[in-house]
Every structure is written in C-alpha cells, then in structure tokens.
Amino acid sequence: MKAYTIIPKPRSIQYKQGNFKCTGIPQINVSAFQQEADVFIKQIQNTFGGQAFSETTDGITLMKADNSFGDIHKAESYRLEILSGGIRLGAQTQTGAFRGLQTLRQLFLSGYQNGELSIPCGIIEDFPRFSWRGLMLDCSRYFYSVEFIKKLLDALSLQHISIFHWHLTDDQGWRLPVKQYPLLTEIGSRRNEHRLWGSVTGGFYTEEEIRDIVSYAAQRHIEVVPEVDLPGHASSILAAYPGLGCTGGPYRVEDRYGVFEDVLCAGNDGIFPLFEAIFDTLAELFPSKYVHIGGDEVRFNRWKECPRCNKRFTELGLDNYAQMQSWITVRLAQMLRDRGRITIGWDEVLENTGKFPLPENVVVMSWRAQQGGAHAVSIGRRTIMSPQNEGCYLDYRHIDTPEEIGRLGIGTIFKGYYMNPITPQMSKDEASLVMGGQANLWSEVIYAGKIAEYMIFPRICGIAEALWSDEKTKDIEDFSKRLAVHQDRLDRLELLQYRGAIQ
Ligand SMILES: [Zn+2]
User: Do 99 and 119 fall within a single domain?
Assistant: First the structure.
C-alpha cells in the first residue's frame, strides 16, 4: 500500500483497507464551508482542466465537526476520513476546513493517473504547531506582478502557509499608493537601472490590486501583513520628498544594492505626518492586525552631522544617536496602536532601548540568527523566527556551487527543515511567546517570478513542516521520500523548482 506522502507531515495517520476510487473529480456535498469548497474546486480545475465535478453519491462531504471528531479544538485542526465509500472532512472552523482541503488537494495532485483518482483509505487528524507560518516576498528590489503573487498564494496554501509578509518599500522602489503623498509612487516607484543601459523599471500596486490580493489570500486563509521599512532603507521616499532627509539631497531611487547612509531626518517633524498618512493607508487596505515597520540596518552618520537632528538629540537628552531610532520606534508603535494595529520590527528594534524601551506589544522578527528572538522573549516580547543562518533566507543559494542562483550564503532544504523556532535555552514561558517563523525572499538578484519560484520551492516545504508538524517526529529520510512525491505535485502546478541535493 502506498503512503500519503503529505507535506507538512500530519499529526496522526491511521491507514485503512482499500482505496477511494473515482473517475473524474468526485462531487462535493457541502453542509458547511461552501467558500472553502469553492476555492478548492477552482484550484483543482486550474490543474486538471475545466471538467465538472462528477455526479457520484460517494463523493466528498464537508461538515462542521462535532466532538466525535477527536482533536479538533485547535483553530486550524481538521479530520479527514478517506474510505472506499466516500471522503468526509470535518473541522470546527473555516480555516481548519481549508487546511484539510489542501491536504486533500495534495492527495488529488498525486492520486490522478489518466483521469482515474485512487487514494489509499485512512484517517488523518491534524493541527499546527505554530499559527505564524510565513513567507516574505520583497517586491521593492523586484516588482512582482499581481498574477505572480496570486499563483504563489495558491502554491503556498498547499503547504498550509498562513502568512504572506509583503515587503512593499525599500531603497529601490516604493510600491504603496498613499493619497496625501502622491510622489511616493510617481517618483519613488521607478528607478533608472544604470547597469541596464539606462532603462527605467518599477511600478506600484493600485488600491484595487492590493484589495484584490488581500481578498485572494484571505479566501486561501492566508493573512497579508504589509511592511513599510522606516526610517532606513528610505531612498525611494527621499527621492520623492528630498526635504525629509538630513542633507536635502540630491537623492535617487537606488539601483545599487546594499545599506545606504541616507535615512529619514529624525530632527524633521515632517516625517510624522508622513508616517500617519502611510499608516492610515495601511489600516484602510489591510485587515491584518499586524503592520511591519522594518527598522533594520539604519545608519546614524547623517544624524550626527545634521543640525536638526542634533537639536532633537539635545532636547531628548540622548547619550548616542542610535537612541533616536528607538525614540522613532516608540512613536511608530504608538501611531499603530492608535489605529488598532500591532507593530512588528526586525530585531534591530531591540537595540539601544535603554532610554526608550521597546513597547510591550511590539513583536520582534528575528533575522540575524535566533539570538534576537531569544532576547525578545526573555524580556517578555513576542517573536517570529526567520534566522538567515538557519535556512530561512531563500535568496541564499540552495547548495554551495557557483552554478546556483543566489547570494550571501547557503541555505539548504535540510537546514530549513531542521529550523526550530524554540531554542533549547528558552523556558516554557519564553517559548509560549514564539509565534512561529517564516522564510524571506529578498529579491536583489531574483529578477523574475520564475526565479522566485526556483528559490522558494521546495525549500518552503521543509520550513512549512518545521512550523506545522511535531518537532519530535522529525526525520530527514522520511521527509526526503515524501518530498520526492511532493515535488511531482509542485510540477503539476507548473512551478519552477530546484531539484538537486537537499543537504
Ligand atoms: Zn537630520
């Protein structure tokens, strides 16, 4: 008998005699979860063509689960019964039902041969280890199309990814329309590619496109968390509004990569109305209670030489210029709290906070290894782990060979699979502050959707399993066997993927 080979590995599988067999696509009987069933049907039809769901009585039944369905108390849990007489999916929540349907989608993707569906019988009971299972896509360094993002969301949902972290602004391009600051998109969204014979590239997402992506993701039970990087990585803002910098410019939307000296002027009160306008826009367009403010890689040299920043420095009675960033972080977090939102920042927001402590509800995203996250939970802050040295940076090469795409380091599938957001040193209380983890795709050298697919798949599968499945049952041999089958499923979704060694 063939095993299910599901990724991420479910909590419990109990195999039964026989197979569920069907010609064409079985009918779905819905007593609950109609929306989830509709998305599932669309996804299946996208892969297998437009054929209608067949009129069999022994099809798939979706139902609100009752107590007889075992461990269903957790928000994303589901129970899937595959028997020769039909398939039954029970869940308490819409999200649980959708996760169960994605497991079934995997079995469909690997179970069809020549129009015949055959799935071994069994009972799957499942729920996640962490609720935050994310992917970050950098849409500043490369401007990915709406169509690509939707394709990606459909592919991510197959592995129960729950968060799409949308990196919307950086030195190389501003992608968010802000009504009161039209030059952010008019000027800040386009750059001269000096390396590419002077061509101009870029773009931005319209409000309509943003709402479309947020709703498309929500139908797949993926939450979209926007990021606007402040007060560093701000060349695109400065190119549009040079008065907000310390020197007044000239500035340009960067076509070089790296960390730049020019940041927003901390002594200029004009930065605060800008922040208010940005956050009003985000609050209007994104229902997520989380907003990511960046806060990474801020250089302080311009502040040291700026009369306005020095005036601010004296007024605040600071000891060093880095404290001015923590002063700004506190202001940003307060503005977001006023809008009912929770702030997320990269782990630099933990630094130089002696004078302006990190507000209690700020979530720390730990990227420079896991120490930032470990420190955050030790002072009672929540954290999300995306350590660059633990396989979570998908702009790294898959393996150590110059023929692979990528930069800065190596992040094997193996590494991501073994990433554990809870470090051995954490106490039980500290561990309870770990929300989960995510993979990040920075796009300096990922200049096409197809290349992004190659960098994301199948690494995201290992990370999804690290965040969903039981840590105690990790087994790379077992994972790699399942992955071999799963990669054929990903082929059916027409994703370009890495096919080489996993460690
Ligand atoms: Zn200044």
Answer: yes
Active-site residue 170, yes or no?
yes
* Residue 75 belongs to domain with CATH number: 3.30.379.10
* Nearest-5° Cα angle at 202, 198 to 207: 160
Domain that holds residue 49: 12-126
Q: Count of domains in the chain?
A: 2
Residues 113 and 253 in one domain: no
Side chain identity at 92, as an amino acid letter? Q
Annotated active-site residue 297? The verdict is: yes
Residues in the 5 Å CB sphere of ion ligand 1: 246, 265, 267, 306, 308-309
Q: Is residue 418 part of a domain?
A: yes
Q: Is there a domain that residue 492 lies in?
A: no
Residue 323 has which token pair? 């404290």
State in Å: Cα 327 to ligand 1 middle.
Answer: 14
Q: Are residues 251 and 144 in the same domain?
A: yes
- Does residue 212 have an active-site annotation? no
Residues 69 and 189 in one domain: no
Distance CA 296, CA 337 (A): 21
Q: How does pLDDT run along the chain (503 residues), one tens digit per residue?
A: 478 999 999 999 999 999 999 887 888 888 889 999 999 999 998 998 766 566 555 789 999 986 555 555 678 999 999 999 999 999 999 999 999 999 999 999 999 888 788 999 999 999 999 999 999 999 999 999 999 999 999 999 999 999 999 999 999 999 999 999 999 999 999 999 877 777 889 999 999 999 999 999 999 999 999 999 999 999 999 999 999 999 999 999 999 999 999 999 999 999 999 999 999 999 999 999 999 999 999 999 999 999 999 999 999 999 999 999 999 999 999 999 999 999 999 999 999 999 999 999 999 999 999 999 999 999 999 999 999 999 999 999 999 999 999 988 999 999 999 999 999 999 999 999 999 999 999 999 999 999 999 999 999 999 999 999 999 999 999 999 999 999 999 999 999 999 998 87
Which of 409, 286, 392 is CA-nearest to residue 347?
Answer: 392
The answer to whether 398 and 414 have CB atoms below 8 angstroms apart is no
Give the Cα separation of 200 and 349 in Å (integer): 34
Tell me: do 303 and 435 sit in the same domain: yes
pTM of the model: 0.97
Q: Which one of the listed residues 36, 76, 170, 348 is annotated catalytic?
A: 170
- Mark which of 63, 93, 126 sits at the end of a domain: 126
